[in-house]
Design a protein that fits this description.
InterPro entries: Acyltransf_C, Plipid/glycerol_acylTrfase. It comes from Gouania willdenowi (Blunt-snouted clingfish). This is 1-acyl-sn-glycerol-3-phosphate acyltransferase delta. Keywords: Acyltransferase, Endoplasmic reticulum, Lipid biosynthesis, Lipid metabolism, Membrane, Phospholipid biosynthesis, Phospholipid metabolism, Transferase, Transmembrane, Transmembrane helix. By secondary structure, the chain is α/β, with parallel strands linked by helices. It has 14 helices and seven strands. The chain has a seven-stranded mixed beta sheet with strand order 1-7-6-2-5-3-4. Helix 8 runs parallel beside helix 10. The longest helix has 27 residues. It is globular and about 70 Å long. The termini are far apart.
Length: 365
């Protein structure tokens, strides 16, 4: 282990990283709250301001993945599809198998310039969580209560509000509803067998109703579905803690662009289409397992400096007053003050580690 890698694995570094993220996040939340009067004057201006404030926060996590961890993200896609990325609204269907699959998704949002405006379907409870949850609230993230009869109307209304959104966005869907585990896979395949559906080896059975509602309500706004399949080289098992420790991973993402017009409008036909899509995704994962690569050419965009510049800016802005404060506490010699400061920093670290990307877990099939 090199000296730099050893430094990245130290708890003190983790405290500093999490302190910057949490405190800058709360400050950004405050700025977002201050945009409320702007909404009454110009909704579109308020939206554009919140897009940039959201970028200030979410790009810090992207910078941690790309610059701190050094994780490499490779994109497999067709050149004729590549030219559309970042220039249109899209629904992104991503497999949910890893702790950091959302971070890899954010990385490509950043590289194509849609990180600040991109959306996700999330649990209603997260809208009350400081930092990420509050950021999502002002960003008009679509929240659900995990009760289908209520969600059907609630989600449809939230999606309809995005039809006049001023900038391009990607809407992320985890159609499997929850992260893949062997136990969940076994239960899911029992359900598939009982319904006469093909058995999937690398995915859970997709939840079709949420997908259908999303597609129907974004017709005329979203141009395509980006079928995205993620895997990691050499059977790596990436974790958020590993990223925090500076461990380098190698992510491969295969993306197919499917025009929204090709997806059936009828609910039953749309459900059958989604099941077929997941059979194809399963074959791509099997090919990756056998060959170590996805089909199609590699046309990965380079990482951008903006996420690093933003991260360094907020680090300097947040660490300067902390340094002044700690210097004053140490100079005062007050043991109580020092202990309170350490407890605060530890709480910030724990909060950041416990927070993970959440998606819709309990929509019925």
């Amino acid at each position: 282990m090199g000296l730099l890698q050893l430094l990245k694995s130290q708890f003190l570094c983790h405290l500093i990283l999490c302190y910057v993220f949490v405190v800058s996040g709360l400050f950004i939340n405050l700025l977002q709250f201050c945009t409320l009067p702007v909404w009454m004057v110009s909704k579109q201006l308020a939206r554009r301001i919140n897009i940039r404030l959201a970028y200030c926060l979410s790009s810090q996590m992207v910078a941690m993945l790309e610059w701190w961890s050094g994780t490499e993200c490779t994109l497999y896609t067709e050149p004729q599809s590549y030219r559309f990325y970042g220039k249109e609204n899209a629904i992104v269907v991503l497999n949910h198998s890893y702790d950091i699959d959302f971070l890899c998704g954010w990385t490509f949002c950043e590289r194509f310039g849609v990180l600040g405006s991109s959306k996700v379907l999330a649990k209603k409870e997260l809208s009350y969580v400081p930092v990420i949850g509050w950021m999502w609230y002002f960003l008009e993230i679509v929240f659900c209560k995990r009760k289908w009869e209520e969600d059907r109307t609630l989600v449809a209304q939230s999606l309809q509000k995005l039809h006049d959104y001023p900038e391009h966005f990607w809407f992320l869907l985890y159609c499997e509803g929850t992260r893949f585990t062997p136990k969940k896979h076994q239960v899911s395949m029992q359900v598939a067998e009982s319904k006469g559906l093909p058995i999937l080896k690398h995915h859970l059975l997709p939840r079709t109703k949420g997908f259908w509602v999303t597609v129907q309500n974004l017709r005329g706004k979203a141009a395509a579905v980006y079928d995205s399949t993620l895997n990691f080289q050499n059977n790596e098992k990436p974790t958020l803690l590993g990223v925090l420790n500076g461990e380098k991973y190698h992510a491969d993402l295969y993306v197919r662009r499917i025009p929204l017009d090709l997806i059936p409008e009828d609910e039953a036909e749309c459900a059958a289409w989604l099941h077929k899509l997941y059979q194809e995704k399963d074959s791509f994962q099997e090919q990756y397992t056998q060959t170590g690569r996805f089909p199609g050419p590699i046309v990965s965009p380079p990482r951008r400096l903006w996420s690093l510049i933003n991260w360094l800016f907020w680090s300097c802005l947040m660490l300067y007053p902390l340094g002044v404060l700690l210097t004053g506490l140490i100079s005062s010699g007050s043991m109580l003050s020092i202990i309170v400061s350490l407890v605060f920093c530890s709480a910030a670290d724990l909060t950041s580690l416990l927070f993970s990307w959440s998606s819709l877990d309990d929509w019925p099939d």
